[in-house]
Specification:
The complex is a heterodimer of chains A (about 300) and B (about 210). Chain A is mainly α and about 300 residues long. Chain A has helices spanning about 15-45, 65-70, 70-85, 90-110, 110-135, 160-180, 185-195, 200-230, 240-270, 285-305, and strands at about 10-15, 145-150, 155. Chain B has about 210 residues and is mostly helical. Classes of the chains: A mainly alpha (about 300), B mainly alpha (about 210). Chain A: Keywords: Cell membrane, Membrane, Transmembrane, Transmembrane helix.
Chain lengths: ~300, ~210
């Protein structure tokens, strides 16, 4: 610590409280995550063999305002609003954004298990910030620092913790919006909306195709690994496992390349000339634009509130 | 490691979106338009490959394969990786939607560099291709880790600690990635060498499989 400590508020705590402050939340979080993962997986697991011809990201049928909202307005609004949330600096605003996202979740009535899965996916990355930043941010004037049991090099900075928690809150607020964005319309319609917004049509088609073959290859990979297990293969640390996995990958690539030719021939034989038929008729109603305007106004208001002193 | 939403400063996330968009357009120009559906199918295979976990001591690492993608797809790799990341973000929330541009830079630029390096130095014997493949696999991961660290540091000196940890966390991945890339490229060089030459060019005489 090079800087003079007199500008920094130092709170002395005994060492065991460090374990309580850092270790306990980590353990509790790990247990909660493990349990939630199991619950979410069980909830999203389909019964029997899934139908691989139908992508699973189909929007659930519903008649909420988000389902009726024009897909172009929805994409633009949620994307712009997400960037606005990224620009937030302060904790209370970030918490307000989470509240708003929860409100959207309730209105859109999306599957909570899927929302949960999405939150679980970001836990690891966000936990890294929460664990590392309090101990590594440089000290500044007016900081409050907790020092444990006289270990001068190990100081828990409240500012760092606050910063990391704000990042986590922003990440959660945006992640909560992804399911309302994607699950309130079938994927082809969402992509059609994208292409109407000026994204080349080829992009949407590539997404659809990769999405479909993603499921095919996952299925194939699972079959291949079942075959390996039946022949006695078990994953271990070591070169033998790496060798086996490398051959596995190579085989997956060879099979996928061979399949591309057949897929493409089959598409052309069915009259593919560079575009798929349109899925739905898109109509822009005044209420769609009002909704977009309203939502973005809330976003701007959040940002203004964020930049004001509090 | 994918960057999630809310981490990068808004200027950096928008800026990296713009740069990624430019690179994607360049990559799409380098790909013949009738090859695009094929690229989509191959992207799906890479996507599945990146979900595979390999045990490493008490934990396991999942592959990010920028090296392999670059070596096999060449300039089309950026388009493929952008597409893959978009799907990962949409389906699994691996990488936030607002950080998509940054993630595409982090994975796509190493892939382009690896593709160039592999094609320039691959030689002709399978063992040399495997060796260069290993170098490319490890080097691509090093480059991806460095870009991740630079992106994190744009947040200011508060982020130095996290950037250092992210770099350190990549060390096991670099080792595994190098080994797997070397062996996979060795496998492909023996089994289907055409893949390492042309990437997406049609494989003649392989109509049935």
């Amino acid at each position: 610590m090079d800087r003079p400590m007199d500008e920094v508020t130092v709170v002395q705590l005994p060492l065991w409280q460090l374990l309580a402050m850092v270790g306990l939340p980590v353990v509790v979080l790990a247990v909660i995550v493990a349990v939630l993962k199991r619950v979410a997986r069980a909830a999203s697991m389909e019964k029997g063999e899934p139908d691989w011809s139908v992508p699973q990201l189909e929007g659930r049928a519903g008649n909420t305002p988000l389902h009726r909202w024009d897909v172009r307005c929805k994409i633009v609004t949620i994307l712009v609003y997400s960037f606005m949330i990224t620009a937030i600096h302060k904790m209370p605003t970030a918490l307000a954004a989470i509240g708003l996202s929860c409100l959207v979740l309730v209105v859109a009535r999306v599957s909570l298990a899927r929302v949960l899965m999405r939150l679980l996916a970001i836990v690891g990355f966000i936990a890294m910030f929460l664990l590392v930043m309090p101990f590594t941010v440089p000290l500044k004037n007016g900081d409050t620092v907790i020092v444990f049991g006289g270990l001068q090099w190990l100081h828990f900075s409240m500012r760092g913790f606050h910063l990391a928690a704000t990042i986590a809150a922003k990440a959660v607020a945006i992640t909560l919006l992804m399911e309302p964005l994607l699950a309130t319309a079938p994927l082809p319609v969402t992509l059609q909306g994208l292409s109407r917004l000026g994204v080349p049509e080829m992009v949407g088609q590539m997404v659809l195709l990769s999405y479909r073959y993603l499921n095919v290859f996952r299925h194939e990979a699972r079959r291949m690994s079942t075959g390996m297990q039946v022949r006695g293969f078990r994953k271990r640390t070591g070169l033998a496992t790496v060798q086996a996995m490398a051959n596995f990958l190579g085989m997956l690539f060879v099979r996928s390349f061979e399949r591309t030719e057949r897929v493409f021939d089959a598409m052309r034989a069915r009259g593919y000339k560079g575009r798929f038929p349109e899925q739905a008729e898109l109509r822009l109603r005044p209420v769609d634009i009002v909704g977009a305007g309203l939502w973005l106004t809330i976003g701007v208001a959040l940002l203004v509130y964020d930049r004001m002193a509090w | 490691m994918h960057i999630s939403d809310g981490v990068l400063p808004v200027s950096v996330s928008i800026g990296s979106y713009a740069v990624s968009l430019g690179l994607t357009v360049w990559s799409a120009r380098k790909t013949r338009s009738e090859e695009m559906p094929k690229l989509a199918v191959v992207t799906a295979a890479f996507f599945v490959a990146s979900l595979i976990h390999i045990p490493f001591g008490p934990t396991s690492v999942h592959l990010i394969i920028p090296g392999l993608t670059g070596a096999i797809l060449g300039p089309s790799a950026f388009l493929s990786i952008g597409l893959g990341l978009l799907l990962q973000s949409l389906l699994f929330q691996f990488g936030g939607l607002t950080a998509l541009g940054a993630n595409a830079l982090m994975m796509g630029v190493p892939a382009l560099a690896c593709g160039w390096f592999f094609q320039a130095f691959k030689g002709s014997s399978p063992s040399r291709q495997a060796l260069v493949g290993g170098l490319v696999g490890a080097g691509g991961t090093v480059l991806a880790a460095l870009i991740l660290a630079v992106l994190l540091v744009t947040g200011g000196e508060d982020f130095f600690g996290v950037a250092k940890l992210a770099l350190a966390a990549h060390v096991p991945v670099i080792i595994i990635e190098g080994a797997v890339s070397a062996l996979t490229i060795g496998f492909l060089a023996r089994v289907k060498p055409a893949l390492l030459l042309h990437g997406l060019e049609p494989a003649h005489g392989q109509a049935h499989g």
